[in-house]
Design goal:
The chain is an alpha+beta fold. Helix content is 42%, strand content 18%. The protein is built from 29 helices and 31 strands. Strands 1, 2, 4, 5, 6, 9, 12, 14 and 15 form a nine-stranded mixed β-sheet that branches. Strands 17-18-19-21-20 form a five-stranded mixed β-sheet, covered by helices on one side. The chain starts with 6 loop residues before the first helix and ends with a helix. The relative contact order is 0.05. InterPro entries: Aminopeptidase_N-like_N, Aminopeptidase_N-like_N_sf, ERAP1-like_C_dom, M1_APN-typ, Peptidase_M1, Peptidase_M1_aminopeptidases, Peptidase_M1_dom, Peptidase_M4/M1_CTD_sf.
Length: 976
């Protein structure tokens, strides 16, 4: 090593040595099955990168180590960086005619550029049969044109690598063409290239289609490829299929011609795509119908569904193009593709997927029926379409470098979708509701130690899958909203636009977004010149959790002292010194009430080493006026006040003036004080005194906030001897609002303010559960009318927006007769939203045998419930007090079977655990579950984070029971 080598070069080399060494270490230790040792060494190596002292010695040492391990096979989790794909040419023939043998096969021709000399081509491939005797490799262009070949191949199942060792070295700067023939079964696992079906009742036949789902790492199940988001390349896709089908892909058809040898088969070639990451590639062979949208001067826009559901496409086909137009204006960048297809897949694991130009949805997320879909269904659908179309820019045009920054697309799409839906449907007032829902979700999840930062290292496919969670979506969206509100409209928009322009067709990481936003903010003056977005936002995206800001007022000096600590639900843990966040401080006083001003009046800052400092606020009012921090709940933090300030707030809320505090801040106060009751910052007396004002409350948001919290208390207390007090308390709390919304009566058509419909649905659901007033008899009366209809599948007199409650009530109080009635409706229904409502209601039974039968039916592939819907059905059973005990037992007895059933499908096991964790609150049950987890380690492989969370939630319930249960009951009794 040259002694006068400069520090930067040295650092670069050092980093390179470290990453090479990491590969070697990975290979060796995983080969010898030493995962713990492996993790430890990798962590040590990661930390080496940041130390500068002794860099030269370090370099020498690492190089030596690397050489010493140089003979093992490649086992680092990322693809080597020696090659990059320039273009893919895919030809795939799909056979859908023979139900005994669904398969596909074809060739992947990949143009590859060598960036470094290398002796192998490492690709991803999983469950594919590659015909090795027909692989070809040749050099393209260049003067010394040489044929190359593959001498051997190695498979690495840990990382799904398929490694082709070449006869001759591939040389840096040269381009090669690799041809790989492959084939596989068209699977039924909802990932990769898979089959889906629907029943054609006219022909009395099951029909089959094929469809792809690749995100995050399943393109490798469909064709050999460089399956990482950073390897963008144009795709030319050609599909072969029987002429009775239609072929769809990301791009429009270029040409169709007959297959050269198979009779009645066609080859359809699609236009070459723009550079695209593999997870965004999509194609399908199907016999669906479509509804075209009429779009003046826009892209061709079509909505696809099975033929007997085509009448449910009207709404999405009108809404979709409006969304596209909105984003074109918001981002100032035209939609770059010539067409969009939105496609409703009967079997689809998640909600929807943003494949560029061919967006796929589960039916509930795209199809809308006037007669069967509720307002909530319609809003969810709109939100999903807006989310996926937002990805056409955030995600597809600009893609994250690596899954670490998944939130850069998921958080942004979630946030801008709320802007979009608010713009197109202002009458829904969904922006406020979405913002609150997102915050409520993260206040819960991110108060757990088992949570994680928004942006975080990813080393395994299972970690990628686990990242599609509330932190990437809801927290991502909430911190963007915070930024939008503290920067203001202009900087925010300009920043986003310049980021998109700068990184279009490329990859980016969060620092790139921060940079664009800082520049925009400095230009417009919305951020002080000595502040930058990166410093502020890193504190929110690189740290787990959110702060609790403690406000202690001095009423004589009219000041307040503010300090911050991480808010944790687990009260055994110390909070002090646990992180520091750059908190934008907006606040207002009882006199000013300028809640709409969300520009920060001050900041809580962090030192360079990440310590928080106490902040003093001046010019506050005297002891007769409250202050509220965090106007419009613009940032994700909780606020605790001194006793006097709480007293003032409680007085105002419980007076005629309660509406002088905006709804979202009323929701904030409810959520904060109930959390503080739970974790001990405040007594339950205070909390209950505050929420007592709900007798007056007529708006959705505060009720939403209250119900979310009461639900958790309910799930514990209903299993205890003191439930009667809680029940009476809830009953008297909700009676006034139940009467105000006119109970369960069908008043929906006369409701002017749309969010009152959601409020009414929510209140009615609680009212029937708690048997308030006439709720139950009225619900049953609706049912009896329905039952006596000559054709109950065609005519349903139950008002759409209370069907979930009516169905649940009749199943809860009825017998197997009601169960069978509803199950028959399920089987006959043609509308996915209605099917979902019924599946959920079927779990409301209290008959042990019915529930047990239902549990078994849910996971029976021969039965009527699609795999994608099984989690809804299971959750429905597990949510109720009797169902919980059965579901928990079923889960524990069958965990291995359930795990195989889902085959590692994203979020499946996680969703089953959610209702279970909320209802365990005894130390004995907790210990039993913990032991079960330890004994079933293998089944939880890939769901480690979910299981950590489950145990932590159970533990916090145990703490609540041990510490608060008596106090809570004592606080409730005098209110009855
Ligand atoms: N990119 C995701 C799809 C996805 C989710 C792929 C999980 C792999 C794992 C898509 O944009 C998405 O976020 N879908 C959401 C719906 C959306 C409205 C929040 C989903 O499927 O839940
Ligand atoms: Zn998304």
């Amino acid at each position: 090593m040259s002694p006068n080598i400069d520090n930067n070069t040295l650092r670069e080399r050092l980093n390179l040595s470290i990453s090479l060494l990491k590969e070697r270490v990975s290979a060796l230790l995983l080969l010898y099955d030493q995962p713990d040792l492996h993790k430890g060494i990798i962590r040590t190596l990661d930390s080496v990168v940041f130390r500068e002292r002794n860099m030269k010695w370090c370099h020498l040492f690492l190089t030596g180590l690397w050489l010493a391990t140089a003979n093992s096979s490649y086992n680092y989790y990322r693809l080597p960086s020696a090659l990059r794909p320039l273009k893919y040419d895919l030809r795939i023939l799909t056979q859908l005619e023979n139900p005994e043998d669904f398969r596909f096969g074809g060739t992947a021709k990949i143009l590859i550029k060598a960036l470094e000399n290398t002796n192998n081509i490492t690709l991803h491939s999983k469950d594919l049969t590659i015909d090795e005797s027909h692989i070809t490799l040749r050099q393209i262009g260049g003067e010394e044109k040489k044929d190359n070949c593959v001498i051997s191949t190695v498979v690495n199942p840990t990382h799904d690598f398929y490694i082709l060792n070449t006869c001759q070295e591939l040389l840096a700067g040269h381009v090669y063409e690799l041809n790989l023939p492959f084939s596989a079964k068209l699977n039924d696992q909802l990932e990769g290239y898979y089959r889906s079906s629907y029943f054609d009742s006219a022909a009395n036949e099951t029909r089959w289609i094929s469809i792809t789902h690749f995100e995050p790492a399943s393109a490798r199940l469909a064709f050999p490829c460089f399956d990482e988001p950073g390897y963008k390349a144009p795709f030319v896709i050609t599909l072969g299929y029987h002429k009775k089908f239609t072929g769809l892909s990301n791009m429009p058809v270029k040409e169709t011609k007959p297959h050269e040898s198979i009779p009645d088969y066609l080859w359809t070639e699609f236009q070459e795509s723009l550079p695209i990451s593999t997870y965004l590639v999509a194609y399908s062979v199907n016999d669906f119908s479509h509804k075209p949208s009429t779009l003046p001067n826009g892209a061709l826009f079509r909505t696809w569904a099975r033929p007997n559901a085509i009448d449910q496409c009207d709404y999405a086909s009108e809404f979709g193009p409006k969304v596209l137009k909105y984003y074109e204006e918001l981002f100032g960048i035209k939609f770059p593709l010539p067409k969009v297809d939105q496609f409703a897949v009967p079997d689809f694991n998640i909600g929807a997927m943003e494949n560029w130009g061919l967006v796929t949805y589960r039916e509930t997320a795209l199809l809308y029926s006037n007669e069967f879909s509720s307002l909530k269904d319609k809003q969810e659908l709109s939100n999903t379409v807006a989310h996926e179309l937002a990805h056409q820019w955030f995600g597809n045009l600009v893609t994250m470098k690596w899954w670490t920054d998944l939130w850069l697309k998921e958080g942004v799409a979630t946030y801008v979708a709320t802007l979009c839906v608010e713009y197109i449907h202002p009458e829904w007032r969904s922006m406020e509701l979405e913002s609150l829902s997102n915050l409520l979700a993260i206040f819960r999840k991110d108060s757990l130690e088992s949570s994680h930062p928004i942006s975080r290292p990813i080393e395994m496919v299972s970690q990628i899958s686990e990242s599609f969670d509330e932190i990437s979506y809801e927290k991502g969206s909430s911190v963007l909203r915070m930024m939008h509100l503290f920067l203001g409209e202009e900087s925010f928009r300009t920043g986003l636009k310049s980021y998109l322009e700068r990184y279009a067709y490329k990859n980016a990481e969060q620092d790139n977004l921060w940079e664009s936003l800082t520049q925009a903010a400095h230009k417009t003056g919305s951020l002080p010149k000595d502040y930058d977005i990166k410093t502020i936002m890193d504190s929110w995206t690189l740290q787990t959790g959110y702060p609790l800001v403690n406000v202690t007022r001095d009423y004589t000096t009219k000041t307040a002292k503010l300090s911050q600590d991480r808010y944790l639900l687990n009260t055994d843990k110390s909070r002090a010194g646990n992180g520091c966040w750059w908190v934008p401080l907006s606040y207002t006083t009882q006199e000013k009430k300028d809640f709409n001003n969300t520009a920060p009046k001050a900041w809580m800052e962090c030192s360079k080493t990440g310590e928080s400092q106490t902040k003093t606020i001046h010019d506050l009012p005297g002891p007769d006026q409250w202050v509220i921090f965090n106007n419009l709940l613009s940032s994700p933090y909780k606020v605790n006040y001194d006793a006097q300030n709480w007293k003032l707030l409680i007085e105002t809320l419980n007076s005629e003036q309660f509406q002088s505090i905006p709804v979202i801040n009323r929701a904030q106060l409810i959520d904060d004080v109930l959390y503080f009751g739970w974790t001990g910052e405040q007594d339950y007396e205070i909390a209950l005194r505050l929420i007592n004002y709900l007798h007056r409350e007529r708006e959705l948001l505060p009720w939403k906030s209250a119900f979310e919290n009461l639900k958790l208390l309910n799930r514990i207390v209903r299993q205890t001897p003191n439930f009667q007090f809680f029940r009476s308390y809830v009953k008297q709390l909700i009676t006034p609002i139940y009467e105000h919304v006119k109970g369960i009566n069908d008043t929906f058509s006369s409701i002017q303010q749309q969010d009152q419909i959601l409020l009414k649905s929510m209140v009615v659901d609680w009212a029937c559960q708690y048997q308030v007033a006439d709720c139950v008899p009225q619900a049953l009366a609706y049912y009896h009318n329905w039952r006596s209809e000559a054709n109950p599948d065609g005519k349903n007199p139950v008002p759409i927006n209370v069907r979930n409650t009516v169905y649940c009530t009749l199943i809860r109080l009825g017998s197997d007769e009601e169960w069978e009635f509803l199950w028959t409706r399920y089987k006959n229904s043609n509308v996915a939203a209605e099917k979902r409502t019924i599946l959920t209601a079927l779990g409301c039974s209290r008959e042990v045998w019915l529930l047990q039968r239902y549990l078994e039916l849910i996971f029976d592939p021969k039965e009527e419930i699609r795999k994608q819907d099984s989690k809804w059905a299971f959750q429905a059973v597990a949510k109720t007090e009797i169902g919980f005990l059965l579901a928990k037992k079923y889960f524990m007895d069958n965990v291995e079977f359930i795990n195989n059933f889902y085959h590692q499908l994203t979020r499946s096991l996680t969703r089953l655990l959610e209702p279970l964790e909320k209802q365990v609150f005894n130390r004995k049950d907790y210990n039993e579950f913990k032991e079960f987890v330890i004994n079933s380690k293998r089944s939880f492989k890939g769901s480690e984070e979910a299981i950590q969370r489950t145990l932590e939630v159970m533990l916090t319930n145990v703490q609540w029971k041990e510490r608060n249960y008596d106090q809570f009951t004592r606080a409730i009794k005098p209110l009855l």
